[in-house]
Amino acid sequence: MLFSMNVLAYFIVPSFFLILITIIYLKCLSTLSKTHKNLPPSPWKLPIIGNLHQVGKDYHRSFLKLARIHGPLMLMHLGSVPLVVVSNAHAAEEILKTYELAFLDRGESHIIWKITYGGKDIALSNYGEYWRRLRSIAALHLLSNKSVQSFQQVREEEMTLMLDRIQETCGSVVNFTKLILSLNNDVICRLALGRKYNGEKFNTMVEQFKQLVVAFSVGEYIPSLSWIDTLRGLNAKSHKIAKEFDEFLEDIIEEYARRNTNESLVSKIDMVDRQDRSFIDILLEKQREDESGFQFNRVTIKAVILDIFVVATDTTFTTLEWAFSELVKNPLVMKTLQKEVNLIARGKPKITEDDIGKLEYMDAVVKETLRLHVPAPIIPRASSQDVKIMGYDIEAGTRVAINAWAIGRDPAKWEDPEEFRPERFLNSSFDYKGSRFEFIPFGAGRRGCPGIQFANTLIKLALANVVYKFDLALPRGEICGNMDMSETAALTVHKLNHLLLVATPRSEIKLV
Ligand code: HEM
After folding, report:
1. Which residue from 442, 453, 463, 493 has its CB within 8 A of the most atoms of ligand 1, so it is best to mutate?
2. CA–CA dist 347, 352 (Å, integer)
3. Fold observed for domain 37-505
4. How do residues 19-63 score in pLDDT, each as one tens digit?
5. Which of 1, 217, 292, 343 is deepest in the core (most CB within 10 A)?
């Protein structure tokens, strides 16, 4: 007993204090080194929730409001998650170009990961070999110029259907929002899945999926409170939607796989040469061909299709909706565009895809729409290493939100930024790829959008043909200048209220 008391007195107690002092010392050292870091300016924050209370539903606006006080590179804390918000072209250039390699990840997001097979798609997978392989398959075989051209017939057929629907309204009110939405969905379904899916069940499934992508998850920012998500039913809901989508895609892929197995070798060769193969056809073929050991399985195919479906439909649809709205709101712009389209069409019944490249003013109208109504207001990235940006330390694992919406209307770069003036893009060096960082609707660099050509072709084809064939006006003689342009933030920034227009066929005289 005496011996054990001695051991306690001479060894254990001093050792315990020694360990305690070492821990405290190391903790102090790490805090000291952290505080010695030159972190970007931050808004004040509350315990546990950090800056969450300062971010509204239209987060791009909340971020800009705070950036006006704290600067173009601002560090926030959403719960326990550090987030750097980038709000001007110079800071965006540092992230997307100068130190691009440090910012090629997306960061992991609970709910989205659950419904996208754990980030196995192109848009969410972190930078690395898996992403590189997927991205190159998409760029070379799904979204290349050649591939986009091969779907010309699908686009033109769907566009003709839309024009016929407008024609049938005989000058009464048309819901343009619904028209554009169905044009987009039908084109993308036919390209990605091989046929149209637009029944009530399918539309609800897509809508619920999009809502989940932007659903606020408490557990994501405050892990200790993740039980709230379970209580709110968010986890169950995401599980249900993921399962529904998975079964839907699984059935389609299985149908394709069965069909391919039954086909003779000759018809398989025919398939490769066919111009209208769907993305599933192409992906299954890439899976069969792959001998590199690349992890290309059913899940990969489903994730890629899901990706394209979600990113392609909403962004392209939103751009068209805003473009038509701005054209109606600005009659002079509409007139100039109609003049250009008439000149190129020379009385032909329709504008074709071959005409589109000649429409310079149209290009400026699309760019101005994307500047003022950038569909994806925030470009998400994450840092994979410690790096210094504009003299500030950004730690590895920090999420980054590039506020493309704020950058597109920065008065330091744009004269009268709130005005819709396509002329500012005429004879300018702006392209869609983000070579000038005050205009980055498609992001920039290695992770920039691979769907630019795909989106642009459909947007310009639809715009050109509608304004060529119809004069558009607001219903009940409403005045264009007072047009409702309120926004709502969902997966992308939409018009809050549907776009209702009256379309009058243009007379033959006006078309030549
Ligand atoms: C107006 C239409 C569109 C806009 C404004 C848009 C915008 C964007 C933006 C901002 C990004 C992130 C870029 C970055 O991190 O630098 C992105 C990524 C992506 N977009 Fe688009 N997009 C559009 C249409 C499309 C279409 C039609 C497709 C496919 C058919 C598509 C496929 C993708 C994919 C796969 C990615 C992920 C790229 C990666 O992470 O490597 N997008 N898009």
Report:
1. 442
2. 12
3. Cytochrome p450 (1.10.630)
4. 555 555 455 444 444 557 999 999 999 999 999 999 988 899 999
5. 217
